[in-house]
Amino acid sequence: MIGTVYHGVAQNMSKAQEFHELALDLSRRYNSTNEIALSLHLLGIIHRYQRNMDTARRYHEDAVELGRKIFSPKNNGRLAAFLLNLAVVYNRLGQLAVEEARLVYQETLKLTRKQYGSRDGRVLNTLSTNYYALGKYDESIEALLEALSIHEETHGDYHPNVAETLYFLGFTYRVKGELQNSIQMLTKSLKIRQQYYGDQHYQVAEVLHDISNTQRELSLLDDALQNAERCVEILRDKLTENSAGVAVSLNGLGHIYLALGDPNVDR
């Protein structure tokens, strides 16, 4: 799909969205169910990165519903990918979809184990997100560290799967309050993503946002400000200006300026 090229290489989200919406319209016109499911799935991912979670939820739910009807047992991996992205959205919705996230994570884990085996890095990443959704952060970190070892052994040190696992580790350490560990993992993830995707990639912005938040919690406000400004710059370039993702990054930037103006402000 042309939209996937923009999503994965050029990183122009609005252009990717335009092409995937066109693909969805054409696929529906010619009743191409596989392409309909894929377009729905990809549009869900785009809206998730734009932080339009309610819209992302609708697309992912429609993709999963169709995927259950058209994918054979041999395509467990594809259905699992659809389910995992839906579970991520449920997780981002927080208390609004806690039970939905738990159930979908469990189904995803079952399918990925059946498709890839219990000790596959993708299975362990899914297991970790399931633990995270349940608030079992120690178990989540244990699964992620094992997944990291497998990904590094399989792919080498510089690979998107390694970067993603490091990012999840950094995010989870931060939730646990282990801020130095969080910074360490996020910094490693950032370095890999910059090398793999380039400095202007939205996934680079994603890591910069979390590094900035962690630095703010550590009262490293000058460093936090620098990373937050870089994040906003990238997202404004890659997402539409009225995207919720841009709004989230601007709120983070504003919070840092507030803290810089008043050292006693609640961070």
From TrEMBL:
Alphabetized, the UniProt keywords read:
Repeat, TPR repeat
Does the UniProt entry include the keyword Mitochondrion? no
The record's listing under Pfam families reads: TPR_10, TPR_12
PROSITE patterns reported for this sequence: TPR
> What name appears for this protein in its UniProt entry?
Tetratricopeptide repeat
